[in-house]
Amino acid sequence: LVPHVAAHGQIAAAMANGQTVEGPNVYYAADAKNAATVVSVMYQASGTAYNKVSDFGDNAAMSCESASAPPASLTVTSGSTVRVYWEGATSELLNQAGVDAAFNNANPWVHAMGTVAMDIADCGGDCSSADPASLSWNRIYYWGLDTSQSISDGLRQTMTDKPEPYYPQGVGLWGMAALVARGSWVEATIPQDLVAGNYMVRTELAAVHSPGAPQVYIGCVATKVEGSGTTSLTGGTQAGSLYSSSGPLATFDVYSGSSWTDDGPALLSIATQTASGGSGSSGSSSSSSDSSSSGSSDSSSGSSSGDSSSGDSSSSEVDTPTTTSDASAAATTSASCRRRRRSLEKKRSVPAV
Fold this sequence. Notes:
Layout: E1 9-16, E2 19-22, H1 59-64, E3 74-77, E4 81-88, E5 114-122, E6 136-143, E7 145-146, H2 153-161, E8 173-174, H3 175-182, E9 185-189, E10 197-207, E11 215-226, E12 237-238, H4 248-251, E13 260-261, E14 315-316, H5 324-347
Parallel strand pairs: 3-11
Antiparallel strand pairs: 1-2, 1-4, 4-9, 5-6, 5-10, 6-12, 7-8, 10-11, 13-14
């Protein structure tokens, strides 16, 4: 018997059409629920706990963290939402100020500085038979840094105590901070006009607390979309081309006082930003999809239009310079995450209790 240890975090559950399906048990492969999960198995023993800049060109790593497709699919009606619940690796933020309860009172997500994105890809048949590395992704949700909002005083203090001090110190709400504040979940609307079929939904949390070394966490949910839409997905972007190793996400120093520029593909032209979203802006990399935006944030994060732009990439000003102590704190938490990863690799084959 071993304690319930996680490698930084994972998808706890997915919800659509009033149905909630829990994620897989990554510690015990023989768990019966693993045969019926709609969520890809994250944190392969042979891989890392998250994707690094060196993985940006890898289609397999950047699609679903090199995981195979989930065995089951979540039914969702076009025009409605798919909600993805994340859980953190540790209890650092559990019952802390500014942090809403996570799914089933699990540990909340552990980082507050970074972007949140959701993409969709046509499986070309039953998603259980799809190879995620071969899929082409279309962005339907993105929240970078919203300079019309601020993090709550409670969550800012919680992150300082972690310690992982939150930047910017003035106005600026990261998508990841909004996710933590509302209960560690994010949702995206499946486009109303999307033709019925089988689609993989990719959820990405890109933490930027370690300057020049972002930590990109990815999980996938298989869906079966029903409805009367007539638009098929064409083009899209393979996962290994979503970001450049010399782009904004790869090189950003959150403590430097420099401006943030949205990164990644443009929003799909038929996409509608959901109520849990912030940024309706597109990223700077090329995409066959046009950009569009709409929506305002949910009640837990306040009204938001995110980076308040569409089309080309936008910048968000960060007006606070770095401090050595804050950068050191980020390095400490990153090392801690790697240690938790090694612990999991040793224990993941044993049932958790």
